[in-house]
Each structure stands twice: as structure tokens, then as C-alpha cells.
């Protein structure tokens, strides 16, 4: 006989993250809201017991570097049968308005980068087939618009789902699982293409066709391709070899050297700077600071990937962000992207107008 049970869980917050970042996420949440404490957890998924009187999770979500997505936990469903469990998911939502349904699997070692797996899609379809008649049909695993209400169903283990809800606000929160994802283009020479594409979507940087971009640490060229596909003119600086397909692109130029070796005045022709080198964060920050603060260098925005060679480096993130602000970049944010590794991406822009806000993803 198949068993089925559901359990409401409020006031709890749920959050997802990269595998291995769970302790960091717990510490970060505790620092953002004293009194919050972790509760149920699995790799890549953590729930938090909220203090009395806490009324909104938005401020935690917006400030978190390590949470891919987060929201209010409605409870859990444990059921051997999807057909029996689906109505219980809707019961947990009660009468709340829902514009989108996002169903995905939590991260697992060796699992796919895209958490919207075929299993998640199939379960999502079954959930929609059992939506109550008094509800309007909602799209499954589509990108939401800002302000829309999203019902989250996270597949934790076989037969165990956690149900939550959140409001689409920041760009990642509009994607299923907060994972900005696309399939690898056939012409991409490395997975760095996907990481740069996700960085551009998250940051909203308004890099336009014809803009000059300089990339420090460009080999073998996957991230340069993502910029070239936007129509940018890209100069890649790296002592290593670039892929021949990237070198053949008419809008790409390779300088086979280190960024610190190029004369600073040569950077005056660029509008955007990207840095992703496998070095200590201080080295990257020192190099970029020497460039963007040089007289006459008009870098509008920077995208910096900083490697967390040890997890205790996360304590320095606030000082890193303040350092970037000191260069004249007023709008500075950081995030650990699902498409990256043990690292964070920092986006800095001189003016908010340089962001492409609220637009659909660009290829």
C-alpha cells in the first residue's frame, strides 16, 4: 500500500546553493539576520527557522551572495505516488495566488548543471494536471516577470518534495531554482561560455554591439565567445593559447601576455573589463585597480571572478566589494553562480543606467 503524508512548515525560509557552500550559506544567513537558525538540510538545500516577528525574506535574499534562490517554506510532501502527492502540494499553498510553477531537483554530485531535469518536468506536468478548478493554469518552469508569485517544488529525495513560494524580484529569482541556464552552443570552445553568459544575464550589463571589451585571463576563449556573440569587440589578454576558432573571429584580438604587462594607457580604448584568472583574489583586485584608476581609462563596468581558494576567504567579501566601490563603481554586487566553481562573481558599474533591467535573456 502506498503511503502519503504532508506537513506544513511555517515560519521557515528555504534556500538553495552550490554543493559545498551549505556551511557558508548558513553563516551568511545568520549574519544577515541574527536569530535565524538552520533546520532541515541536505546537500544544496537548507531551511531556516525564522525569529518571531520576521515578516519578509526579501532583504535576506537580495543581500545573499550564496543563495541561488530562496523563499518561504510551505512544508513538505512525502509520497510514494506522484498522483497522490500532487494534490497535497496545492493544499500547502492554500488560497495564495500563483503565477508560475517551478519544479526542480536539488544539486547532487555528478548531477546535471540544469536542475530542471526530465524527472522534474514530468512531475511538474502531473502537478499541473491536478491543479484545482478554481485556479487558472500556470506555466511550468518558465522565466517569470518581476513581481509575479512563484510556487517552488524542490525534489529532495525520491518521494520527498519540499514546497515553497517566493516573489520574482532579482533576475536569478525569476529562473527555476535561481539557476540562469542555457544549453551549450555547438560553437562554444569551453564551458566558460555558459559562465560568462550567466554572468551577463545576472549582472544586466548593457554591453552593446560594437563596445570594446578587454578580458584578463581569456584562454581558451569560451567567455570571449559569449561577448563576441553579443556583438562586442573583444581583446583577450592571456599568456596561454587561444582556441583557433576564437582567433579566427574578426572582432577578436589576442595579446599573449599578462594583464599587468600591458601599458595602462592601452586600456583607454575599452569600455568594459572582465577578469577571470586562476589566481588569488588580491592579485586580481590589485591588477584591475591599477587599470581602472589610471587617468583617462573609461571602464564603465567590471565583471570580476574571484576564486575562493579557501572557504575562509568569504570573510573578506565585504572588503572586496568596498574596494571596488572605491574605484568609482557605485553599483556593486556579488553572487556565486551555479555555472561557476568555488568562486564568486562581482559586478561593478559606475551608473545604474548601464544595467539592462527587466529584459528577456539575450543569446
Topology:
Layout: E1 4-16, H1 22-32, E2 37-42, E3 45-49, H2 58-63, E4 69-79, H3 82-93, E5 100-105, H4 118-129, E6 149-157, E7 160-167, H5 192-203, E8 212-216, H6 222-228, E9 233-237, H7 244-247, E10 252-255, E11 272-276, H8 281-292, E12 301-307, H9 317-326, E13 331-335, E14 343-349
Parallel strand pairs: 5-6, 8-9, 8-11, 9-10, 11-12
Antiparallel strand pairs: 1-3, 1-4, 2-3, 4-7, 6-7, 12-14, 13-14
Structural class: alpha/beta
Low-pLDDT segments, ≥5 res? none
CATH architecture of the largest domain: 2-Layer Sandwich
Q: Helicity, in percent? A: 10-25%
Strand content: 25-35%
* Oligomer designation: single chain
CATH level-3 fold name of the largest domain: VC0802-like
Number of strands: 14
Can you give me a brief rundown of this structure?
The protein has 363 residues and is α/β, with parallel strands linked by helices. It has helices spanning 22-32, 58-63, 82-93, 118-129, 192-203, 222-228, 244-247, 281-292, 317-326; strands at residues 4-16, 37-42, 45-49, 69-79, 100-105, 149-157, 160-167, 212-216, 233-237, 252-255, 272-276, 301-307, 331-335, 343-349. It folds into two domains: 4-178, VC0802-like (2-Layer Sandwich), CATH 3.30.2130; 192-354, 3-Layer(aba) Sandwich (Rossmann fold), CATH 3.40.50.
